[in-house]
Each structure stands twice: as C-alpha cells, then as structure tokens.
Amino acid sequence: MEPRANRLHALHQAARGRKLRVTLVRPPVFFHKRSLSNEATPSLALAYITAFLRHNGYDPLWVDAMAEGLNQTWELDRYPGFLGHGLTLEQLLARIPADSEVIGFHAMFSSEWPMVRDLIMAVRARFPQALFVAGGEHLTALTEYSLRDCPALDVGARGEGEQRLLDILETVSAGGSLATVDGIGFLDTAGHYQETSGLPRIRNISQLPWPHWPEGYLEAFWKSGKSYGPQSARDMPMLWTRGCPFRCSFCSNPNMWTSRYAMREVDDVLAEIKHHVTTRNVTTIQLYDLTAIVKKRWIIELLEKMLAQDIRVNLAFPAGTRSEVLDDEVLTLLKKAGTTYISYAPESGSPRVLALVGKRIDLDAIFRSIHAAVRHGLTVRINMVLGFPGERRGDVLRSLWFGLRCMYIGVDEIQPYIFMPFPGSEMFRTLLATGKIELGDPYFLTLNTLNTDVTNLSHRVFNEQMRPGELTFYRLLLTLISYFVGYIFHPSRIVRTIRNIRSEHDAANVFEHRLKDALRRKKITPNH
User: Fold this and answer.
1) pTM of the prediction?
2) Which residues pair with 72 in a beta bridge?
C-alpha cells in the first residue's frame, strides 16, 4: 500500500469514537538580511481555523514559530544571505507534540516556499505516520507543483481553510475518499494529480466563530511591539470582509478567494470589537481585509453605530483600499470613529498602465479622496508599483509625479514596489505560459528579495523596456524624494519619528514600525 494510503488507513482506525489530534504549524518568516520589511504579525488564519475546529469538537494545538521566537533571527546555511525570524527548525520540532496525528502547515507566501518546503520535509522525518495538510495562497495557486516539490505533503487545501480542513478530518476519520472533499488537491496512488471541484466559499461569514487566540499569544506581540501596520500598545487584527470584487490582472486574490466579496453583518462586527475592547483593553483595531471599504451604506451604518454606542478604539487600515466610497462623508465618519491610519492603492500614476492591468480607478478621484483624508487628519500611505509588463518610462515618470504630488499635500509615506508576478495572478499565468517564468527556487527567492533588498541592483524584473538597475533606481528615487518632501514640508514629522523610534508602543506609520523592528532583532545561531 502507498505510504499516504497507509497513513489514511491508520488514522481511520485510530479515530474510532474520538476526534483526531491536530497540530497547526506556522513557519518562521524568511527574509534577506538587508531587508527592512520583516512583518511579524499575529496569524488570523490560524485563529479562524482553530475557532472553527473547536466549534466542531476538535482541540487543535498551535506551534507558531513566529509568535514563539519574536525578534530572534538566525542564518540559513542552505540559503546564503537569508535569515529566519522566529523559532529555529530544532526549536519548532521540539514543540510539535509527539502524538500529533494531523499536522496542518501555513504556506501563504510563494516568496518563502523553498524554506517552508524544507521545514515540512524535516517535520516528516520526525512524524512519518501523521497526515500532512498545507494551505494558504501559495498552495492554492500552485497546488500540484507544491505536492510534487514537497513529497512529504499529503493534501493541499485550496482557498478558505476552515471548512476545508474540517472536511478533510471528518472524511479521514470516517474512512472516506479524499476525492469526495471539495476544494483540495492530492496525488493518487499512481502519482496522478487529482483536484476536486472548484473553490467553494463560505456563504455567511457572520456565522463563523470569532477567531480564537491562545492564552498569552497576542500579549507576546504587544510586548515585542509587533503588528501589521503602524503600532500602538495593543493592536488587534480583525477582518470585516472577505475577498475582493475586483479582478486586477497583477493580483492573486481572485485565485484564492474567487471574485465573491462577503461582508459580515454590522452587528456581528460591532459585537467583536466591543468584546476585544472590554476583555483585552485593545487600543487599535487593525483591518487585514483585502478591500475593507466597498459598500458605502454598509460602512456608514457600521461607523454610525460605533459612534452611537460610544465604542472607543482606534481604527487602522494598513492594507491598500480603494477610493470609490471614501468621499468626504465617509472620511468624516472614519475620523470621528477613531481612524488614525489609512492606506490607498492607486498602484500607478499612469492611466495607460491602470487600463493595462485592469485597475479601474479614476486618478483624479483618488487624489481628491487622498487629499480629503489628509485634511481630516488621517495618516495616509499610498502603494505604487513600477515595472509592469508593457509599462514605459513615461508611465514611470507619471507615477513619480503622482507620488510627489501626494507627499506635497501631506501623505505620510509612499511604498513603491517593483512588479512581482505572484502565482495565481493573470499576469503570472501569462508569463509562465510564454516561458518568461520558470518555476523553481530561484524564482521564489526572487520574489522574496525583489522588494525587500533595496541595495540589490541586479534583480530579475519582468519589464521589457527597463533593466533591473533602472527600476531599482526609480524605486529608490521615489522613496528618498518622497520622504525628503514629506519631512521638509512637514517638519513636525522629524520630531515624531525620532520620538516614536525611541518609544515602546508607538509608530505612526509602517516606516517607523519596520525601522524599530530592525533595531530590535537579536541574532542567534540555529543550534541554540
């Protein structure tokens, strides 16, 4: 019998009358040693999956290498120049219970896949009988590739993980066939790839249990000053919505979530916020939503009820949102309800490029919205992307000009990226089909360093007209000039930045936060 079939049979026999023992593993973060972008954030994915499994009778254990090794970094012998942030491999292995029967791995980012693959293979050597399941955006986009590249994996869970993992557990326990589980991929006994139907979405996300946070888990992030966006004393991650209704060709979200956009019921959102404020004394709600604000009526109802119920907490939107409904009325309510930080994602200052990549926005409208947000006293960030396939130098110059105009009117920071073809995106599929991408470790490591190692002038880029050094120069130019303009025209920021870097709990923007992160890193040797 094939090894995976042996494992499935053994688990079916062991599960008689009880729930399987599940361990959820989140790997360390992997990044280049010259990177400032090293986001150590609480895992909403594990928190939601754990809550859902607990609701259905399971008691999964977490091994979160990031949370248990905050500010601890170590070198990767196999990948010179790269560091791990979190528990070392030996530390992680020691924390996985010896009686684990199913081990679920968080495999979100393709840029970290080579290291995550090696970790999974090492765990398999210690747990030959356990069923290995992996999920996340990378696994969803490259399910067959990942299963073949990592023979230790048994199943790839595609899309939303809660129902998917529960269905796998219940099917295995009952001795059923994996082919009956929707939304997964696996290799059959003959080595042929099997992918079951579609990516079924959770229809009513308000019926999901609220995320389950293990005792002391969030406190570790607060103590170490870690969060997704700007920093306050006690930042709480939340999702108000799931998915994104738009289909930009450079974005991998439609492949992960489909184009279905789901909003929670307003009262459910408010109840969770109040719970966090009263039981955990949180200072800021940080929204991890792909596109948090799409429906004007919905966001106005939520904000008006927050004000009517006197819910006192700050709000931060560090993920790039759109501007269609962020008019003066909505921005006024956002400010009154406690919003401190908001990020816009125009992506380009060139209408031609926006049309090329399917980003249907009006640059004049988004500029007016950004200006209004600044007038209301919000700290504003904008995200820009340079070097799309088909982009010209004139388009880049328009993006530079748009960014500088934004800094002049008071935008606090600009994050310029060089285009990266993320697996699962339409552009990725086109580049792969035309032979401009070859899947393998060099490609994944390029994704890791392209927008983090700003000193490297020889990155692989995917623009036909501009070479890597030229695009790197444009990115560095926009970054340096934007901060120069920001600090010169708004000199009070100089004092604020110095104060926040020295403070324990405060960072007004992501730049200040990531700089503090870099200063706090503690390097160890892997055998410690």
Assistant:
1) 0.92
2) 522
